[in-house]
């Protein structure tokens, strides 16, 4: 920790005046002149300028609200549950020093803040509140943004901030890292605008914040160590070569078999094996395993069969585990989990219309339209809630089209960092930017030449990239970063999102002309609750698919259990149903699935209406939302979302 900077916080007026003069000259001249400013700050000023941040902006570029914020709160609920109890005892010190503490996720989104009341009010004016995003791109130089970029402790003091509106503030950010993979889980940030501080008190708060981040990391270290010791023993006992991959597709661990292999022992990244690299990227983006694919990995061009399993925490990808085998048998962990995948014409797809499950009229109608869409070559737009199977439809359409012999390339526009999305989509020439490969790299559009590119979560594409996509759709050419040469494209575009593009257009978050270019042919994938008659068929399919993993065959589903499953609204759609069946298989004794094997939320829903259950819980807990959520065994974020869904007001539970 940069303890020496605490003196500058205490002597704020003198320090701020000198730094402000340097900052002012920097903004006037466009370059740094003078001395006394840390190199990390100058580098961040330069990066902020390159990112197009206005130093005189009166607000951040990015703030999320409503369901988007609730989803992030729910996704980070476990992290927040660790942090909240540990910061409660610091409340008196926040009041004394007029400071505040915030918890941000790995995207820089402020999830929760507490501190001195007047400081919180002042912070709200510059969007240091729930939903405010404090990356370098949205807010310029700031401590959270630096911690996100470097994964190290960061202080930014007063006029060291790139944006003038933040010059009254000091902030110190403490990253929370997951052990082993070193992936960023979140950031703890201390901030204040008080220019007269007791050095001992502020140092104490900094030390406590640092200790909180270390305590959380220690918890996960113990958990990871405990699991790793047992898993390591298991992995060393099999003959498969096993690689552990982090989110950057770097090899961070190997079992003995891999260390002894002439190629795997030297492998540092999946990038040197293109087929493997493609599927690892897909697993990291989708969170779904890949089973039994082929790749040539050594100089002898020997074919290996590999399977990839994602590793996640709070729905965020941490990396993946890859199993290799020289023959066509299933890797050890996949023998019981998945039936052999069907042979398809294209190795880049896993699904076809033969894999569609459902006989309801609602589902049959959209499948029929999708089959019709496969016979034409127009741009296609898929909309539907998360978990409805939009990529399954996209792959099936490609598989049934005249392009099936060519690649199907998918990219999740919301999963790739905005700073990398442009190079991922359009490719780049050698030396196009720092860190670029010496030979350059083709983008997804070039990789899909002759085939189909699937742009999932298109609504999350940054506005500045949307104009480039519009040009591609209009002119059917792509230009790599750092090049002036255009590459002609023969690619079908299928785009998808769970968001309402028209509403985003009204908010100025999506280009209207691009929306019309994408929505040439539209297909709306129905939610599972809209085709509830398909639930029994899906249940039996998942039981058959996963039963072997739990040593069960010919499973009988009791009528009451099936009734619970059919009546449940499935907010997570097919993905949630699959998870529930997997949990039920784990809970089962014998080969008969009863309602008691199902999660409580599924059972309770069939007993009484959801709205009535919410009101009853609120009445029992005297209107305390957090306690009511615990009573219903759901998260607080889910509780608020459901209260909004049913338009519940205090009058409903106060009588």
Provide an overview of this structure.
The chain has 655 residues and is of the alpha/beta class. The protein contains 27 helices and 21 strands. The strands form 6 sheets. A 5-stranded antiparallel sheet has the order 2-1-5-4-3, with helices on both faces. It has a 5-stranded antiparallel sheet with strand order 7-6-10-9-8. The longest helix has 38 residues, at 199-236. The chain starts with 5 loop residues before the first helix and ends with a helix.
Give a quick precis of the structure:
The chain has 655 residues and is an alpha/beta fold. It has 27 helices and 21 strands.
* Helix fraction bin: 40-55%
What order do the strands of the largest sheet run in, or round the barrel if closed?
2-1-5-4-3
CATH-assigned homologous superfamily of the largest domain = GAF domain
Radius of gyration: 27 Å
CATH top level assignment of the largest domain: Alpha Beta
Helix/strand structural class: alpha/beta
Number of helices: 27
Shape: globular
DSSP strand content: 15-25%
CATH architecture of the largest domain: 2-Layer Sandwich
Structural domains: how many: 5
**Largest β sheet strand count, sense and barrel closure:** 5 strands, antiparallel
| C-alpha termini separation | 54 Å
Mean pLDDT: 82
How many β-strands, per DSSP? 21
- The stretches of 5 or more residues where confidence is low (pLDDT under 50) are 327-346
CATH topology of the largest domain: Beta-Lactamase
């Amino acid at each position: 920790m940069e303890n020496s900077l605490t003196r500058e916080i205490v002597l704020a007026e003198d320090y701020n005046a000198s730094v402000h003069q340097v900052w002012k000259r920097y903004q006037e001249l466009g370059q740094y002149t003078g001395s006394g400013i840390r190199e990390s700050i100058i580098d961040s000023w330069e990066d902020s300028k390159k990112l197009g941040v206005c130093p005189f902006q009166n607000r951040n570029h990015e703030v999320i609200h409503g369901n988007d914020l609730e989803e992030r709160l729910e996704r980070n609920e476990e992290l927040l549950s660790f942090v909240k109890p540990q910061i409660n005892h610091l409340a008196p010190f926040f009041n004394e020093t007029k400071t505040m503490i915030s918890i941000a996720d790995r995207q820089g989104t402020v999830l929760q803040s507490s501190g001195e009341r007047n400081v919180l009010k002042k912070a709200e004016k510059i969007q240091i509140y729930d939903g405010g995003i404090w990356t370098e791109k949205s807010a310029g130089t700031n401590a959270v943004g630096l911690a996100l970029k470097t994964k190290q402790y960061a202080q930014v003091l007063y006029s060291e901030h790139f944006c003038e509106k933040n010059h009254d503030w000091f902030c110190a950010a403490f990253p929370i890292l997951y052990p082993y993979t070193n992936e960023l889980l979140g950031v703890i940030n201390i901030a204040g605008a008080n220019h007269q501080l007791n050095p001992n008190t502020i140092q104490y708060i900094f030390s406590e914040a640092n200790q909180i981040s270390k305590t959380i990391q220690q918890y996960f270290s113990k958990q990871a160590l405990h699991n790793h010791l047992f898993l390591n023993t298991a992995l060393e006992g099999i003959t498969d070569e096993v690689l552990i991959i982090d989110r950057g597709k770097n090899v961070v661990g190997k079992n003995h078999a891999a260390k002894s292999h002439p190629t795997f022992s030297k492998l540092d990244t999946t990038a040197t094996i293109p087929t493997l690299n493609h599927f690892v990227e897909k697993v990291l983006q989708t969170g779904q395993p890949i089973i039994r694919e082929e790749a040539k990995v050594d100089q002898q061009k020997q074919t290996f069969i590999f399977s990839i399993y994602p590793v996640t925490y709070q729905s965020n990808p941490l990396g993946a585990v890859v199993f290799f085998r020289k023959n066509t048998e299933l890797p050890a962990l996949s023998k019981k989990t998945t039936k052999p995948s069907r042979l398809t014409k294209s190795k880049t797809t896993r699904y076809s219309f033969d894999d569609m499950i459902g006989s309801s009229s609602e589902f049959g109608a959209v499948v029929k339209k999708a089959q019709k869409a496969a016979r034409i070559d127009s741009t296609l737009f898929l909309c539907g809630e998360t978990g409805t199977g939009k990529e399954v439809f996209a792959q099936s359409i490609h598989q049934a089209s005249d392009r099936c012999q060519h690649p199907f390339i998918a990219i999740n526009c919301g999963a790739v960092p905005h700073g990398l999305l442009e190079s991922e989509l359009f490719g780049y020439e050698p030396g196009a930017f720092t860190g670029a490969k010496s030979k350059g790299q083709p983008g997804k559009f070039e990789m899909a030449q002759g085939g189909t590119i699937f742009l999932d979560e298109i609504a999350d594409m940054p506005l500045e990239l949307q104009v480039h996509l519009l040009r591609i759709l209009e002119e059917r050419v792509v230009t790599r970063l750092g090049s002036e040469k255009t590459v002609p494209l023969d690619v079908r575009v299928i785009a998808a999102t769970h968001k309402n593009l028209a509403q985003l257009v009204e908010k100025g978050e999506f280009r209207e002309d691009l929306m019309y270019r994408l929505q040439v042919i539209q297909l709306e994938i129905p939610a599972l609750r809209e085709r509830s008659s398909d639930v029994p068929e899906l249940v039996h399919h998942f039981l058959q698919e996963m039963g072997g993993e739990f040593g069960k065959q010919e499973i009988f589903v009791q009528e009451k259990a099936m009734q619970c499953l059919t009546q449940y609204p499935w907010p997570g759609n097919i993905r949630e149903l699959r998870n529930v069946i997997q949990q039920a298989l784990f809970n089962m004794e014998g080969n008969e699935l009863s309602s008691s094997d199902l999660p409580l939320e599924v059972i309770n829903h069939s007993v009484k209406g959801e709205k009535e259950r919410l009101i009853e819980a609120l009445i029992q807990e005297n209107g305390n939302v957090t306690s009511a959520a615990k009573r219903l065994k759901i998260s607080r974020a889910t509780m608020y979302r459901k209260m909004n869904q049913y338009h519940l007001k205090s009058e409903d539970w106060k009588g």
